[in-house]
Structure formats: structure tokens, C-alpha cells
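Database export, one record per block. Field names are fixed; values are copied verbatim from the stored entry.
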Amino acid sequence: MVRRTKIVATIGPASGSPEMIARLLDRGVNVFRLNFSHGSAEGHRQQAQIIRDVCAEKKIYAAILGDLQGPKIRIGDLHKDVLTLHDGDPITLTVNADKAKTDSCISVGYKALPSSVAAGDTLLLDDGLIQLTVSSIEADDVHCQVKVGGELKSRKGLNRLGGGLSATTITEKDLADIELAAELKLDFLAVSFPSCADDLLPVKEKLQALNTSISIISKIERAEAVANDDTLNGLIAASDGVMVARGDLGVEIGDAQLIGVQKKIIRYARRANKPVITATQMMESMIYSPVPTRAEVFDVANAVLDGTDAVMLSAETATGKYPEKVVAAMADTCLGAEQHPDTHTSDYRIDTTIGTIDESIALAAIYAANHLENVRASICLTESGATALVMSRLSSSLPIYGISRHQQTCRRMALYRGVVPIFMDFSHNIGNELYPAALNTVALSASLQQGDRVIITCGDIHGSGGMTNNLKILEYQR
């Protein structure tokens, strides 16, 4: 059984060697994430080259996603290694660093903090582990009382429950990292903390100036981004894909609201024909444990049943003790969830008008694959991967083999749910030669037997994306 849900693994000290990259590919990683919040430009260059080299050696197409740090709002450096805050303690957050020299006063780099909060607001430190209630605001200072205490270290994140704290979406570091992503020809670029579609404009302008076609993945992690459907759908429409970044999003909207919002984001993204990644703490216990908790297994399975394209591992593979085991556990969980009948058929867009010919062909192919007897696979001959992406929006138990003559397209399709990327230069195949050539290319991977049916889509015109206008159903003959 081919696993349809893809796995994104973050690269770090525990997983950066060629040997470990090879083992992670064997266990099922489809996309490697380079976290630009950590490491140096030279380190990322070396890591990207290792990934490309190992993939080439193993003849596997895996994508690389660069993740911009973004303008995460943080407290400053404390005057001691660890500051213990107790429930009920008074504490002041100040934008004047010269004042922050005692246990009761903490500096904040976000200069607009005093004008962005009001008495009664709840402020959250260190991903919500520590909670403060705002008592009053005085000039540069925000006076608070500790609601939920704990141990605090320097440079931890600061959020406001309900959102409302936002800095410029793109920083100078991000601009430098975008140039690095273009230099490395990365496949995807994750943009941190956008609140709306307009926040992506500086990234798009920078990418356009660099003449690169990197796909933009918007990390949905601000309360403002999910405040209403128009804003959320606008952000999805402006992106090439989205990530449900549950860490900061959960802090801002509250964990109790997060599960419903996750389902909505996945549903809206699929409806817009955009890939979606579900991320953060999916198998967090496996940073130290060789097996996941049942709750983590259920969490991953729930995202699979929601229709996510990919599930992501962060510290689990970057710094955890068991990178291979956590990828294997996640792959097994995805396969288990994909056996549920709801993942095998789809009524997606059955009652709506289809806007383009290529989309009509793509949807018709999967409907036929789901309902025609003895179909074993779908084959999509594609320039840009767009048709394969639309095909992947429908639930099916059958694999979609995305065949492209462009290696970048093959890598990009590695993220799409249910799509198996295969490289083939079909530009020299003429007329009816194309179909048996494509069929023979996937015969071994699909374990085709005599008489098995395969659905093939392609376009009459090679060289342009969005030109798919043919659908054929063939029987495999040895």
C-alpha cells in the first residue's frame, strides 16, 4: 500500500549527516525543512547539497522547504540564566532595556507593546507556559501580575491572547534568507506570521526580483489570520500552500479553539487547490522516547483524516534522540489512518461548476479511478504539477503518478498528497507513443498485472502548464 500523506522532517544536529538523510528517506521523508531561525547560511548551503546528493544517489525526489524566521516578538536577555515567576507576583515588561535589571522587570524588543495592550489583557510567554495579566500601562512600561508562573529564560516568545501583537512581516534577516533560498533553488519557502494576503507582497516582490519560482507556504499562526473567513481565504488564495503552525496559533487563539480552526484551514486550503502542512508537536514525546503516545498517534491520524497533504516533524528530527524511529512511527500512523473508508472516495465539488478544462480532466480522472472496476493507478503527465495537485484534492485509495520532464516539478509534487513523482523526458514521444511509454514507466512501481487498468491525463501541447485536455483509460499489456 502506497502511503498518500507526506512527511516533512526538520533537519538539525541529529539528522544532518548523509547517512541519516539516507535513512530518513528510507523511512519515508518526502520534504526536508531547513529552519532559518537556527544555523548559518554556510551551514544551510552544505545541508541542501547533502540532501540533493543523497536524493540523486537514491533516485528519489524529495523537496526542500526553507522556513523564514519572521518577526517573532520576544523578551530580551534576562539578568540571570533562569528567572522563576510565581503566581501572583508583580512583573513589569518594559521597552526601555536600561530599566530591566531586576527580577521584577523584563525588557521587550517590541517597541509598540505599551500601545498594543490594555488593562485586563492576557500576555503569554514561552508558548503560553507562563501567563501574565496586564494591570496598567505607564509610558514605556506594562505592569502585570503573574497568572500562571514558571521558569523563564532569555529570548522567549511573547504573545497576546487573541492576537494583536504584530511586527513587520519581513525582517532584514528574512530578506537575506530569501536570497539564500533562491541561490539554493529551494522548492518551498515558508513565510512566518503573515496576518493577511498583503503581508506576502514583500516576499513576492523579492522573489520576483531574484527571478525565482519558489512556492510560498504561508504559516498560519496569528489570530488575525483566522479572525474571519474572508481574511483566511484571502491569505490562502495569495499563497502556493499553507501550514497550520499550531504553536503560536494555539497560544494566540487558545488550544481549545485550535482543533476546529485546524480542520477549517485544511478544508479551505483543499477547496482552493492548495497543499497544506499540519505542524507542531505532532510526536513531541519522541524527542526523548522511542515510541509515541497514543494521543500523538491520534493527533497525526486526525490530521490525515482531515485531508492534510503532509504532517511535519520539528525538534523530533532536528534534535531528538530517535529521528529514524519517529519518521517510521509517523509513516505507520498515516498508513493506518488511510485505511479508513472516508479516505478512499470523495464527493468534492460534485455539485459545483468547474472553471477550466485541465481541472475538469483532473477531477474526472480521480472520479473514474474511484468508481471504475480494476483501475490500479492514475498517471498524470504534467509540466508544472498543477494537474497532479488538483487530482490530489480528491480522496482516493489509489496512487497518482505525477510524471514530469522537469526535476523541479518532481520535487514540488513530493509534497502533494497521494502523488508519486517520477521523472521522464516525454518531449520526444510522438502521438500514441506517449501513452505506452508512460504506462511502462510506472508499471514496476505500481506493481501492474496483465489487464490492470490505468487512467492517464496529459495535454496536446508540451511546454506550457495548465494545458491538460486528454484523458485515456488503458489496460496494461506485458
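Remark 1: The chain has 15 helices and 21 strands.
Remark 2: The domain at 83-160 is CATH 2.40.33.10 (M1 Pyruvate Kinase; Domain 3).
End of record.
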